[in-house]
Amino acid sequence: MNSEDVKAVKRLLSEPQKIVIVPHKNPDGDAIGSTLGLCHYLNKLGHDATVVSPNDFPQFLKWMPGSELIVNFEKDNSLALKLITGATIICTLDFNHLSRIGQMQQSLEASRADFIMIDHHQAPADYALITYSDVSMSSTCEMVYNFIEALGGRGSITPEIANCLYAGIMTDTGSFKFSSTTSRTHRVIAALIDQGADNTQVHHNIYDSNSSDRVRLLGCALGNMVLLKEYNTAYITLSQEELDAHNYKKGDTEGFVNYGLTVEGIKFAVIFIENKEEGIIKISFRSFGEFSVNDFARAHYSGGGHINAAGGRSESSLEATTEKFKELLKQYKDQLTS
Ligand code: 5GP
Ligand code: MN
To answer: Which of 22, 24, 96, 100 to mutate for ligand 1's pocket (most ligand atoms within 8 Å of CB)?
Structure first.
């Protein structure tokens, strides 16, 4: 964050504010960790801050301190609208465009609050008074740490804040292995442990608390994996029927896409997940190296994200979507095999 923005934020926070903090729809570990971490910090400063999420979030994040106080815009709509209408500041975290919050978009566009954006996705939209955008960052949680540090608040990071921020950095970096992980990321992690983050417990809460249904669903997904060696590509499909047979719950398929990249030589991994209720196929893309899945998702699947991790959607059937995908790969053969 530049020094002008730091001054402007300090000015804004110099008197008590009503603050709403918003993650993207279908929030992940980084979205929930960063919004809760910031929320605890702002409340500690004496503001009245609340996280309002566009929809529910996965069970494996519900251990996070303060997660029980998150207002769900879909479920607690009138309370959410009241908070948004009354807000003097709205912080939007871990997304780059108001279209990423679904039905909440209109309410935020109608608000006259001062907006603060903190995000690490490509191509940030220009709607905020303060835009702290940095695509080189591992995670929005690392940026929230920087934000707190810039405001002189490093010493007031409590174990609650530290656990939230640790969780988001860990999940968005694939446990510190993605190329976005820098020495600075590790320094932030070290500082969070010094401030009380319980690293072993956070890993356990997120990675070792699976339902048996989820582990069996992973088995099903891996069984469905198709390897297209001539394109160094692997893809997985999960039909609605397969999800139903494993009592699918939100978040159960998180991380499945990464298994494609664990196969020797694979540089591009994709998962296609059928969602009959929304009438779409939700798609996640991951790559290793130069191939930009952000460009790929933007060009063909109304999506986006980062160079090595992006998402998108298709409105065709599962079969038609994978057929089209295989056709599309022909255009990318050089990029995928160079
Ligand atoms: P995931 O595959 O885990 O859902 O998302 C991977 C990354 O791409 C995340 O940073 C996520 O925010 C972003 N992303 C996922 N879906 C979309 C989408 O439909 N549009 C855009 N712009 N970004 C997405
Ligand atoms: Mn993120």
So the answer is: 100
Number of domains observed in the structure of the chain: 2
pTM for the model stands at 0.93
**13 and 121 together in one domain:** yes
Which DSSP category does 330 fall into?
A: G
- pLDDT for the residue numbered 184: 98
N- to C-terminal Cα separation, the chain: 37
CA of 287 from ligand 1 middle (Å) equals 13
Q: Are residues 196 and 226 in the same domain?
A: no
Q: What does the pLDDT read at residue 282?
A: 98
Q: Closest Cα to atom 16, ligand 1: which residue? A: 311
Instruction: Report pLDDT for 278.
Output: 94
Any alpha helices (H) in 195-310, and if so which ranges? 199-207, 212-223, 240-245, 258-261, 293-300
Indicate if 93 and 131 belong to the same structural domain. Answer: yes
Average pLDDT over residues 224-234: 98
Domain housing 244: 213-337
CA distance linking residue 55 with residue 72, whole number of Å: 5
- From atom 10 of ligand 1, which residue's Cα is the shortest distance away? 305
Enumerate residues lining ligand 1, CB below 6 A.
24, 121, 284, 303-306, 309-313
